[in-house]
Amino acid sequence: MKRVAITRALPEAERSADRLRALGAEPVVAPLLEVKDRTFDATLNGVQALLFTSANGVRASVRKLADRSLPALTVGDATARAARDAGFSDVRSAGGDVTALSMLANTSLNPKAGTLLYLSGADVAADLVGWLIAAGFTATRRIVYEARVVPALPPAYARPFDIVAFHSARAARAFATFGAPNAARATAACISEAVAAAAAKVKWGRVIVASAPQDEALWRAALNT
Description:
Elements: E1 3-6, H1 12-22, E2 26-29, E3 33-37, E4 47-52, H2 55-62, E5 72-74, H3 77-85, E6 91-93, H4 98-108, E7 115-121, H5 128-134, E8 139-149, E9 163-166, H6 169-177, E10 187-190, H7 193-199, E11 206-209, H8 215-223
Parallel strand pairs: 1-2, 1-9, 4-5, 4-7, 5-6, 7-8, 9-10, 10-11
Antiparallel strand pairs: 3-8
């Protein structure tokens, strides 16, 4: 049974742990990041749709947004589930990455119908708003949460892991900052090439990348190698 460190923030870490147990692994929830809400402008005047690239963005947003009637476009299915759970009725999943989300907006929305509002974390991997503006939309971004590195390395890392799973480059960089304990004996399982590039700053036993930026692809890559 492979022992897997889950570095992502709660509550997603617990959901990942449940899935890994079902797949026969031994998950250990050991977040390197913690999520904190940010104050943001919750007015929606002139907005035709909301865009989300994470479930954390959905949860942080709905703590202030009362209106669930606008279309919610999400980067993938996990974020779409969070939007439906939050009460959005018109939820459209791009089923991929930020590029796929931009394409979904281009094909399903009208640039003349109003502003696209991207509700995000403080750190983003791509210029979604820039892409949307280039496509003819009026678009803006509001930061609704930030993911901070935890104050200290969780004690669980004192014992070697078979796999350390990274859902973000930020978590990979945090692991390196904490000294990357036992990395040379472990596999870094990364959800994307960008995350793998950050993880590769450390000497690992091996680095593997999911075939798609989705949890299921990540766990297939991690557990079948």
